Amino acid sequence: ACAVATPPPPPPAQSDAARAGERGNGRDLVVLGVETSCDDTCVAILKSRRRNRDDWDLVGENENDKVEVLANQLASQFGIHAEYGGIVPRLAVRAHQDNLPQVLEKAFEEASMTWQNIDAIAVTRGPGLSPCLWAGLSTCCDAAQQYEIPLIDINHLEAHALMPRLTQGPQTLRFPFLTLICSGGHTMLMLVRGVRQYEVLGTTLDDAVGETFDKVARALRVEGHEGHLGAGLERLAAEGCAERGPAFRVPMENYGDTCNFSFSGLKSAATRAVKALEKRAQGGTLDSASADIAAAFQATAVKHLTRGTRRALAFLGHRVSRSAPRNIVRNFDRDVERRPATLRHELPSALVLSGGVASNEFLRAEMRKLASYFEDDLRLHHPPAALCTDNGVMVAYAALEILSDKRWLDDFARRDPTELQADPQWRFLD
Ligand code: KG4
Ligand code: ZN
């Protein structure tokens, strides 16, 4: 087991008078977001306008520009774990401990603020790696106590799910919407009915899609791009041709009555194909066939994701346009027949991609195509790449969405921050 992070001592406290003068000016709500659930140390500061102290007038009302990102800082651990087969918790927690004070300082500098300006601290409490979660949580807990700032615990998946409401504007992206969260740790189809109102329609039965991209990328000796192996694999795939690569089977084709996913079989098939290629190369460099394997793998993984999403849309009662390609209409009709009787019709207003893998251009293009086959002008939304992967903005934003309901605010103000515990398996979504 890994040691729990010991937080660095927070900066010295200021007098009550100084605190009262600067924080809570009655118009703005400033939230600091901290994310340390995995291998990136992220801090952001967001500002939202409110009318007065009792009326936290936040997102969801009128304008899209009510929320401002004042700071967005991140320290990547990509280089630290690169030589290992995955994230090493022992090293990750140490890096979070080392980096968090600096990342916080940079964020305060970028926003020209101090702890005195912060109205609420939002921190990821789960799911994630336990020691990593504690690194962020303990630091935030100390600051919350010392400066008497409410501490808001955020679910990492909820943060990914709500993030596109900030980038698209809450007026454009209205509840309910269907989100595919595809990240290093999760692959989940979720109907987002509102803040803290989620229904999971499908999830992975084994590996997550991002984890699978990472494993196959490692086998292919791909270098990371923008701090991610998956992005490196996407670049290699762009040089190859899926049809020339191995004919991988799309997973779970005969499990038509669920929207679940499975990636372990595809992962094994792809790594086997790489091994066979290596054997042929006899220890030399992998030739252009490696790009074809990457392309074929990516195409199959994306097909699996789009088919599950199509099924979820069919189950929810969305109608496919009769002018869509014949095979799409046929498969859609088959999906409709297999719809679980317990699921009621509930039309999502949009289709949303979020999580690290949502920065993949090929996935976006295929999902956009899928959305275009549906009636009622179904649109695809996703955050820009830098906000698809883990970041502090999504954590602070989730808190703003939660605080827009005053009941939650009262609830958080009454809570004792020291009672918060990291929850590596936090499952409040299903
Ligand atoms: O959301 P995220 O930053 O962390 C988790 O919550 O897990 O997602 C990281 C995952 C990694 O597996 C990374 O390789 C993958 O997202 N990823 C990509 C791309 N960019 C990041 N996978 C495929 N294509 C990309 N362009
Ligand atoms: Zn994530």
What kind of sheet is the major sheet? Answer: 5 strands, mixed
Instruction: Give the beta-strand count.
Output: 10
Poorly predicted tracts of residues: 1-22, 51-65
Distance between the termini: 28 Å
Question: What are the secondary-structure elements, in order, as H or E?
Answer: HEEEHHEHEHEEEHHHHHEHEHHH
List keywords for this structure.
single chain; 430 residues; alpha/beta; 5-stranded mixed beta sheet; 14 helices; 42% helix; globular; disordered N terminus; binds 5'-O-[(R)-(carboxyoxy)(hydroxy)phosphoryl]adenosine; binds zinc ion; acyltransferase; TsaD; transferase; N(6)-L-threonylcarbamoyladenine synthase; KAE1/TsaD
Structure description:
- With 430 residues, the protein is an alpha/beta fold.
- The protein has 14 helices and ten strands.
- It has helices spanning 16-22, 78-81, 89-111, 130-147, 156-168, 209-219, 229-239, 264-281, 289-315, 326-337, 361-372, 385-388, 392-403, 406-414, and strands at 28-35, 40-49, 67-76, 120-126, 151-155, 177-182, 187-194, 197-203, 350-354, 379-381.
- Strands 3-2-1-4-5 form a five-stranded mixed beta sheet, sandwiched between helices. A five-stranded mixed beta sheet has the order 8-7-6-9-10, with helices on both faces.
- A hairpin with a 4-residue loop joins strand 6 (177-182) and strand 7 (187-194).
- It is globular, with a radius of gyration of 22 Å.
- It starts with 15 loop residues before the first helix and ends in a 16-residue tail after the last helix.
- 51% of the residues are buried.
- Mean pLDDT is 88; it is low at 1-22 and 51-65.
- The structure holds 5'-O-[(R)-(carboxyoxy)(hydroxy)phosphoryl]adenosine (KG4) and zinc ion (ZN).
- The site of 5'-O-[(R)-(carboxyoxy)(hydroxy)phosphoryl]adenosine has 20 residues, from helix 6 and helix 7.
